[in-house]
Structures are given as structure tokens and as C-alpha cells.
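Hey, can you fold this one?
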Amino acid sequence: MSITLDHVEYKYSEGTPMETEALHDVSLEIRDGEFIGLIGHTGSGKSTLIQHLNGLMRATGGDILYNGESIYREGYSMKELRSHVGLVFQYPEYQLFESDVLSDVCFGPKNQGLSEEQAKARAIEALRLVGMGEEYDKRSPFDLSGGQKRRAAIAGVLAMKPEVLILDEPTAGLDPKGRDEILGQIARLHREQGLTVILVSHSMEDVAVYVDRLLVMDHGRLRFDGAPREVFSHYRELEEIGLAAPRVTYIAHALKEAGFPVRTDVITVAEAEEAILCTLNGTNEREKATP
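Sure. Predicted structure:
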């Protein structure tokens, strides 16, 4: 599986006095099995970009290829594309509408043409993948907690067996426990199911912990594309576009400036803890060796 964006442009209200450029010359490749984070300030083009990946929006310039084939060629099946590239919108619980959870998750597979029995089997499998047991099947989706609603909505996309799962701010509005549960489930799905995952997030801490590759959008342009550690090394430039590095990165730099010889490329709490302990142990060893 691969998705290639080739000099993609998008303009809202093109050709009118209200014309606004939302994407400018974006080129990148999304490869099979990647866990990608997508960050950017409000209005940077994140949501516009992800809605191009399954054809919900059509580029006004450039091309998008799925497995080497242009999704804009005549006769290309957007329905087929969307069965491979699943998109979970921000606040997906607003999309829940059936009388019970199982029926809601069955909707996508039925829309793909599966029989009632096949759709039910897919839905049950998807619900179990996101940690929702049989006791949830007949519950009203409107009686679930915020985190449970998110998991049900994600199950609704997983039931369509996508190769790519795109999540737009899946933890927005959740408490810390709900946020950790959702991100943990997503990470497990990526690891165990081999899903390609694209996670749109405003939390630098979350992307630092979970993703392997980080894309940074700025005013419709792809500003950075690399491993999180490499991207966050540009924290001063990120600040200029309204973003930042994880807080532990700043703590490490403050310690270094105060004379504590800790490494400054840490991006997670676990890394910071290890770096500080290593430095302390090294200092203690040197002190012991000093006559």
C-alpha cells in the first residue's frame, strides 16, 4: 500500500474573489505500515490534507496516487478507495445514529455490499479489536461515555477493513484516562493488525510517544517531514509557526543551560527520566573516582 501526493494544490472558492489557498505544492509518500503524526496550527491545512487522501476533497492542482494509480483518472472508484482509506473525523461520536452499537458498526460493511451475517461478523470483530465486549453490542451508542463513543466510531471504520486509518484529533475533549485508552488502542491496532495510521493531533507529547514519522503543516505547506526527534530538534522554528516541542525537551535544555550535563534530544518523559538518571549516575561515579 502507498499513497503518493504529487505537487498537490487546493484552493477554496477557486476563481472567485473569496479564493483561498489551503494547500500549496504538497508532495509526500505514505508507505505501508507507517504510524504518522500530522501537526500544525489552526488553519495550517491538516484537515484539508487528510480529506484529500480518500477523495472527499479533490485537488485543484497536482495528483494523488493510490498504489501507483491516479485517483483522478476517469472511472476510478472513489467508493473502493474509501473502503481502503478509512477516515475518523474529529468528534466522531456525532456520527453515531443507530439504535444500538452493533447496528451502528454494521452500517459500513452493509454499505460495502456485505450480507447481514457478514456485516455482523465484521462488526463484532471490530468492536472486540477496540476493546468493547459483548455487553456493549445492544447498548444505545448515546448511553456510552466519551471514550467508549470514540471506540465505537473507530470500530465502525475498522469493520470496513481499511488498509489506512486516518484519525482527526481522536482524543479531543477526553479526560486523560480516556485519551490514554484511545491512543493505546490505536497503537495496538497498528502493531497487531499492521494498519497504516495517520494521527492528526495538537498534542506534541502524544505524537512524541506514539508515531514513527511526523509531518508539520504551515499555511498549506509541508514544513517538516521526518522522525519526531529530528523534527522537534527544530523547536525554535516550530515556535515561530505556533507550535512547540514536548515540554520535557524544554526542561532538558533548561537543565543543560543551568550547568547540568544532560542530553537535550529527549522527547518523552521516559527518555528524560533515563537521561537524568544516567547523568546523575555518571556524576556519582566521577565523584567516587575523585581522590
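The beta strands are 2-12, 20-31, 35-40, 61-66, 69-70, 85-88, 164-168, 196-200, 213-218, 221-226. Let me know if you want another pass with a different chain boundary.
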